[in-house]
Design a protein that fits this description.
Elements (H helix, E strand, L loop, with lengths): L5 E4 L1 H13 L4 H10 L1 E4 L1 H9 L10 E3 L5 H9 L4 H5 L8 E4 L3 H9 L4 E2 L1 H10 L5 H13 L5 H13 L2
Parallel strand pairs: 1-2, 1-4, 2-3, 4-5
Length: 167
């Protein structure tokens, strides 16, 4: 993960972060840690949604808002059924980025394009492997995400098993 220094976070994941802060499952310090470790990137289209949904977990003045550069790629994603904000991710340079999303079709679509999409729960595992999140915190967060039906049983078990393998 050391070569990855940028995170693109979609609206659904920002909503999840807000929920986790409200639930007490993560702290504002966790959000600050993300900003310390990564360049957090969104598109103007995602920013509009973040503001519309009154998301409080993002730090506006520390978030890079990157305008769409590849208009045709964005339009293709829109034609393939994605809304403007999700499609905008395909219109920016995503090299050296982890793209966090909770949208299964979006993740599948992005993976076909060889983009580095992943669920937030999977990203937590990377943070644990890099010693940015403790094994106990990962275990608790994984359990919480499963209890609120944010992740399925298979992903819950996979992360639980992988947590035990981390030294």
């Amino acid at each position: 993960m050391s070569s990855i220094s940028k995170l693109i976070i979609d609206t659904g994941t920002w909503t999840k972060l807000d929920t986790l802060v409200i639930d007490g499952a993560i702290s504002k310090e966790f959000i600050e840690l993300l900003y310390e470790q990564f360049d957090i990137i969104i598109t103007p289209e995602i920013e509009i949604e973040i503001e519309y949904y009154n998301i409080s977990s993002w730090i506006k003045n520390q978030t890079f808002v990157i305008p769409v550069k590849y208009i045709e790629a964005k339009k293709k994603a829109e034609r393939d059924g994605f809304d403007e904000a999700d499609a905008s991710i395909f219109g920016i340079d995503t090299r050296d980025c982890i793209i966090l999303s909770e949208d299964r079709p979006l993740i599948k679509y992005g993976s076909i394009s060889l983009m580095n999409f992943m669920y937030f729960a999977e990203f937590l595992l990377l943070l644990c492997e890099s010693s940015l999140v403790s094994k106990n915190n990962l275990y608790d967060l994984n359990k919480h995400l499963y209890s609120i039906r944010n992740i399925g049983k298979k992903l819950f078990k996979d992360i639980k098993q992988k947590t035990h393998l981390i030294t």
